[in-house]
Amino acid sequence: MSPSPELPHLDADAFRIPGLQELQPTARATHAPRILLLYGSLRERSYSRLLTEEAARLLRAMGAEPRIYDPRGLPLPDGEPEDHPKVQELRTLAQWAEGMVWTSPERHGAMTGIMKAQIDWIPLAVGSVRPTQGKTLAVMEVSGGSQSFNAVNQLRVLGRWMRMITIPNQSSVAKAFLEFDDAGRMKPSPYYERVVDVMEELVKFTLLTRDCASYLVDRYSERRESAEALSRRVNLRSI
């Protein structure tokens, strides 16, 4: 039965009126925000890795707990069983994290296969648990030429597909080979300041949403589907 005669197709049992109280939980987490960082290159001097390491330093300074996943040794998706040690390491980190940073080089106008392989190994669901749903995400890219946004745009699409809360800000570092010194540290520049902005925004969004993430992604269609599944099970028992 519908909660309103004007909305005859609504399921009253699954319908919820969004409320402010659920967005302001009385019990809030006090641990450091847990952030997983992924990068998309295996080169010895990988600029996506150097940018990721710089981001991790900033996150640590902002009170977060960053962990960087090393993609070396990760097999291609479906090339090995899911119990491969590198796959299990990645999936464990994905479940541990409350937010993520994805940083890819732009190659042939797109993110790298190494970047995509990591994302593809993170499942949409493990049993009844969605490892990425409701978690925050920041996206960045590096390029060898002029500034481009192809990779970050693709990463945003993937973040939406993984049901993540992708923050508005992003970073695209052009001519990355000019932006890092011999020690691998990022030089002072507007690009560096943008990375600071992105990490600051990521920490803020993570602190804002992590305690109510399950409420933010609680959906009418899925509540209704669950109710129908329960009904089918009850009916089967009664036959």
TrEMBL record:
SUPFAM superfamilies: Flavoproteins (SSF52218). Its cofactor is FMN. It comes from Acidovorax cavernicola. Belongs to the ArsH family. Homotetramer. This is NADPH-dependent FMN reductase ArsH. Keywords: Flavoprotein, FMN, NADP, Nucleotide-binding, Oxidoreductase. Residues 33-176 form the NADPH-dependent FMN reductase-like domain. GO terms for molecular function: FMN reductase (NADPH) activity; nucleotide binding; oxidoreductase activity, acting on NAD(P)H, quinone or similar compound as acceptor. InterPro entries: Arsenate-R_ArsH (IPR014063), Flavoprotein-like_sf (IPR029039), FMN_Rdtase-like_dom (IPR005025). Coiled coil: none annotated. The keyword Nucleotide-binding applies. It holds the Pfam family FMN_red.
